[in-house]
Design goal:
It is built from 9 helices and 5 strands; from the N terminus they run E-H-H-E-H-H-E-H-E-H-E-H-H-H. By secondary structure, the chain is of the alpha/beta class. The longest helix is centred in the middle third of the chain and has 13 residues. The radius of gyration is 15 Å and the shape is globular. It starts with a strand and ends with a helix.
């Protein structure tokens, strides 16, 4: 079974794109979401359409209370620390995060990571997302939804989505 521990930003970006369904196809096991991330995703400032998508998605996830948080770093938010703590405890197939510090922490613990772009690339490779749709999703992420990536990463992702 392919367990996934999810951070907020990939879930938010996939909700904006209406592509949360890809996670169930790419990672057929349970999706674990730390409780603080679940709260973050249900805040009043989340736009109505995204909030509805996230609420429906979270119903299919296991929202996990992380009582004893490890990774006591002032550079990490409470949610980031909970993602890393839960990932270290559960040893998922993938830690889903766009945050560079969380990625580094997960990699240091020997865990595999993927972010929003990784989901798009995996979906494209698996035939779940046509090339034109994948490319449009990438352009929408950068142009409309505020995903900040380097030009080199954009070019690499674009090439891999063809």
């Amino acid at each position: 079974m392919s367990v996934l521990v999810a951070d907020a930003s990939p879930l938010i970006f996939l909700a904006k794109l209406d592509l949360l369904r890809l996670l169930g196809s790419l990672f057929p096991g349970p999706v674990l979401v730390p409780a603080s991330i679940g709260l973050e995703l249900s805040q009043p400032h989340v736009p109505v359409v995204e909030a509805r998508r996230l609420r429906l998605f979270l119903r299919r996830c296991r929202v996990v209370s992380v009582d004893r948080v490890e990774f006591a770093s002032s550079a990490l938010s409470q949610g980031d620390r909970e993602v890393l703590t839960l990932a270290c405890r559960e040893r998922p197939a993938v830690v889903l995060t766009d945050d560079s510090l969380v990625r580094r922490g997960a990699l240091a613990e020997g865990l595999r990571v993927a972010g929003t772009l990784g989901v798009l690339i995996r979906a494209r490779t698996a035939g779940l997302l046509p090339a034109a749709d994948a490319r449009q999703a990438l352009d929408d992420l950068v142009g409309q939804h505020g995903l900040r990536i380097s030009v080199a990463l954009y070019q690499e992702a674009s090439r891999r989505l063809e």
